[in-house]
Amino acid sequence: MTYKRKVQLAVISDVHLGTFGCQAKELLQYLNSIDPDILILNGDIVDIWQFSKHYWPSSHMMVVNHIIDLISKGTKIYYITGNHDEMMRKFVGFRISNFSITNKVVLTLDKKKVWIFHGDVFDVTMKNSKWLARLGAIGYDTLILINSAFNWCRQKLGKEKYSFSKKVKDSVKSAVKFVNDFETTAAGIAIDKGYQYVLCGHIHQPAIKKIETPKGNITYLNSGDWIENLTALEYSNGEWSIYKYANDQLAKSIELNVNTSFSKKNAQLFEELIDEFKLTGS
Questions:
Q1: Could you report how far apart the first and last alpha carbons of the chain are, in Å?
Q2: Do strands 231-236 and 239-244 pair parallel, antiparallel, or not at all (unpaired)?
Q3: What is the rounded distance in angstroms from the CA atom of residue 140 to the CA atom of residue 200?
Q4: Cβ atoms < 10 Å from Cβ of 52
């Protein structure tokens, strides 16, 4: 039996199952290393925008199966919709046992309120030009694919991984400004609503920071992603922390029977599930 850390609340976002960049095996190791009372899936868990029956590795299906297994074991799970899985918004309000689909979650943790949502509502591109956002997502996924091949070569040479997209985002002024504006906007609205914490995903930038505005201050949190950063947010014993897979030797040591190859059967099953969602929600 693998030792599992007890966690009061765990938040993951931007997994993008169904894309080349998704680090499903590493996510499985993380999920198998914790025993959460509450698990929040904060948007873009499945990338329905880019889903293709030609790419659905068994490891991606195993993530879905693990979440279903957690539900059956009594873990309270909230599925918060994002932009890449926006089709799920047709089912907001759906609830069965300890699983629910929603656009946002408000929790009280140690007498402090936390407002949790994906964050694409602040994205002007998403609001005004969805086709442009989708095009950008395809370009990003292509960059990640090239980056994966590049890092495979670096690892063979004994060198550390290098992130193209992270370098671009950190160096381009407009990208830096977008992140800062996103964080400030989320913080300002949350303060107006009387929350003590605001928690988002969407921008793939893990963070825990105090943000001060003329109206007050608040703790802003972001769960990051499972493409580049491989991060989550955890809350236990009255404290928030950023989980980083890179620093977790326990999770890395977990051996899983993961087949990362493409599974036509699994892809077909998942495609049928998506079609069923579309039919039900139409």
A1: 45
A2: antiparallel
A3: 20
A4: 11
Q: Where are the domains of the chain?
A: 5-281
Model confidence pLDDT, tens digit, residues 128-159: 444 444 444 555 555 565 666 656 576 667 77
Residues in the chain: 282
Span 184-238, pLDDT tens digits: 889 999 999 999 999 999 988 999 999 998 889 999 999 999 998 999 999 999 9
| Residue 48: per-residue pLDDT | 79
- Quote the pLDDT of residue 216: 92
Q: Which amino acid is at 124?
A: V
Looking at the DSSP bridge assignments, the partners of residue 212 are 217
Q: Which of 64, 61, 44 is nearest to 141 (CA)?
A: 44
- Tell me which fold the domain 5-281 belongs to: Purple Acid Phosphatase; chain A, domain 2 (3.60.21)
Q: Encoding tokens for residue 17?
A: 């199952």
DSSP string, 5-65: EEEEEEEE----BTSTT--HHHHHHHHTTEEEEEEEEES-SB-TTT-BTTB-BHHHHHHHH
Residues with Cβ within 8 Å of residue 227, at least 6 apart in sequence = 14, 16, 19, 21, 22, 23, 144, 204
Q: What is the pTM of this model?
A: 0.79
What is the DSSP code string of 101-165?
EESEEEEEETTEEEEEE--GGG-HHHHH-HHHHHHHHHHHHHHHHHHHHHHHHHHHTT-----HH
